[in-house]
Amino acid sequence: MNSQMCMQELTLTIELTKVSKNYGSNSVLKEVTLKIQEADFVCIRGKSGVGKSTLLKIMGFLDTPDSGQVKLFGKEVHKMGDGERSSLRLNNVGFVFQFFNLIPSLTVMENIELPLALAAVNKSKRKARAMELIEYFQLANLADRFPETLSGGERQRIAVIRALANKPKIIIADEPTSSIDDENTQMLMDLFTRVNRQEKVTIVLSTTDLYEKMPVHTDYLLKDGKLQKTT
Ligand SMILES: Nc1ncnc2c1ncn2[C@@H]1O[C@H](COP(=O)(O)OP(=O)(O)O)[C@@H](O)[C@H]1O
Ligand SMILES: [Mg+2]
Asked: Which of 37-51, 114-128, 184-198 has the highest mean pLDDT?
């Protein structure tokens, strides 16, 4: 193996070092250290209330730890100004949440365009990118529908596609499969797998399911404030 390959293999996207977070006397994260490599597919498992959302929010710097260090692409997040941090997030991280959070008054297409609108991409480029995505994932038939007319599984797939709009390097998905059935979970995981393999997007997802086999590369269990690698 030459040195360039070696360096490429070691490219880290997210790096947490001794990250702790407390809510009053509740120590949710206790010196959690985690390194996620480029194009990794990571699952964080843990029962409800163990701190999965807290951890994922800190990874996507939607929340700050009480102590410890968060690095994204080798840069320390807390040393950045607010503007730099927001722009880094907007351009590199896509989020998918448990309860879909598509905007009800916008069509599927408009929902997919939303992150692009926030990044001030002009209307024709926005439309082209949204159309490209929805066609690529064979969901163009849903383009003009409103979220309330979609099934839970369809909404969640659209939420993933929306998270891809800005061509992020990382997708953080907090319990994306918790409110959908097994068949839709399978379809959603197929979509994540495709995004991970073909687009080389790093994916971090959480689940309360401690045992279900997932098509991920790296599996962790969060328990008692500690993160334990299980594969
Ligand atoms: N803003 C907050 N204020 C106080 N306690 C919080 C807050 N957010 C989360 N918690 C607590 O931290 C713990 C972990 O929460 P969370 O990260 O949401 O867990 P999970 O996502 O694994 O269900 C829970 O006990 C929760 O009640
Ligand atoms: Mg949660």
From this structure: 37-51
